[in-house]
Design a protein that fits this description.
By secondary structure, the chain is mostly beta strands. The protein is built from one helix and 25 strands.
Length: about 375
């Protein structure tokens, strides 16, 4: 047999094998290409650009004037005016001062409505407060938003409530100081200086419930501007009013979540002490120490108590003998891994000049950090 004949037989034998294998595999290949996907595969629909077409009533909650620390709650109604059901992913407030009803996973059917509560916990510092609640809906790229507003006031308020610091512009201007209850009062000093009134002469005119003041911080080097412009009044329920000087170099950097980073201590007895509290939000570690960053004061931590996820710390501040008048200073609290600075301000006054009973003088004895006392959750 010739070599050519043998090669031909090998060729045809291999050809037949290849054809047979191809025929056997072809149905499997087709099945893999055209069979439908398994039933348990999750399909995600297209994302619609923009917020969902939900309507919110009322369009905003404005609680008006509220006292420091006072909580307020209102109700919003979400309505789905479309013919398609909508699933709420979450309600997301932009501020820890605001809490809402948990609507995660709730479905609003076509033409149906659903309600949720929004609560605003007022800060201890005065001034406007605003929080935005974002309603996140499945399938939409943006949330629908609604605002919750209030103005935290004591007996007195300032308009505007803050002083803006602008580049190359002298820090001076005018501010209205008025009583919320319309009762007359006196302004005694501004930053430990005699107040400069506009359109009012305290030697001739009677006591008023509204004053127009001029403030002037041009005597300060811009890098040494105070954090607050402090106003002393004769109102026992509002002895110190603070205007925030908006200077980024003096801003507090939030490290620990606090209810408030600015503490109005009011009247502090000279040669005495003043007790105060501050609150840490959603914090697990106990506070190890609280200290004053000013040589005008010493600070002692008295107690700390847990309520749910929050911790309230009670402290005592004592002014040094040479500390007088309107004062502002920083405190620093330390936990095991973090430290947080706070602003505090007030008016140091002789006990004889203070209204009501003065506090007895008690010495501060250095001690270890008080234990964390657990309280029933809210």
């Amino acid at each position: 047999m010739s070599v050519f004949s043998m090669n031909s037989r090998v060729f045809w034998r291999n050809f037949i094998v290849i054809v047979a294998l191809t025929a056997a595999l072809q149905p499997a290949i087709c099945a893999a290409e055209f069979d439908p996907p398994p039933e348990n595969v999750t399909r995600t629909g297209p994302i619609i650009i923009g917020p969902p077409p939900l309507t919110i009533d009322p369009p905003a909650l404005d609680f008006g004037f509220i006292a420091p620390g006072e909580p307020k709650t209102g109700i919003f109604t979400l309505k789905n005016p479309t013919s398609t059901p909508m699933t709420i992913v979450a309600l997301q407030p932009t501020c820890t001062c605001t809490s809402t009803t948990d609507l995660a996973g709730r479905v609003i059917g076509p033409g149906q409505s659903i309600q949720f509560d929004a609560s605003l916990a007022a800060a201890m510092a005065t001034g406007p407060r605003k929080s935005t609640v974002k309603v996140i809906v499945e399938g939409f790229s943006q949330p629908v938003e609604v605002d919750v507003r209030a103005e935290v006031v004591v007996a007195l308020r300032a308009v505007p409530p803050a002083i803006n610091v602008l580049p190359n512009v002298p820090v001076s201007g005018r501010v209205v100081i008025e009583s919320v209850d319309r009762k007359p009062f006196r302004i005694l000093s501004v930053d430990n200086n005699a107040p400069t009134f506009i359109g009012f002469d305290p030697t001739k005119d009677g006591v008023k419930n509204t004053y127009l003041l001029r403030y002037d911080l041009t005597q300060y080097v811009r890098d040494a501007l105070p954090a607050w412009c402090l106003i002393q009044t004769d109102r026992t329920d509002s002895p110190v009013l603070a205007l925030k000087v908006r200077n980024e170099k003096m801003n507090i950097v939030p490290v620990v979540r606090m209810k408030e980073y600015n503490l109005n201590l009011g009247v502090i007895p000279a040669n005495g002490f003043k007790d105060f509290t501050f609150d840490m939000v959603d914090w697990t570690e106990p506070v190890l120490s609280v200290s004053s960053l000013s040589d005008l004061f010493s600070v002692q931590m008295l107690a700390q108590e847990r309520s749910g996820k929050d911790i309230q710390v009670r402290c005592r501040v004592s002014p040094k003998p040479y500390a007088t008048g309107l004062v502002q200073f920083m405190l620093e609290l330390k936990t095991g891994v973090q430290s947080q600075k706070l602003w505090a301000y007030g008016m140091i006054q002789e006990p004889a000049a203070m209204p009501g009973k003065s506090q007895a003088i008690a010495p501060i004895v250095p001690s270890a950090a008080p234990p964390l006392v657990a309280q029933p959750g809210k």
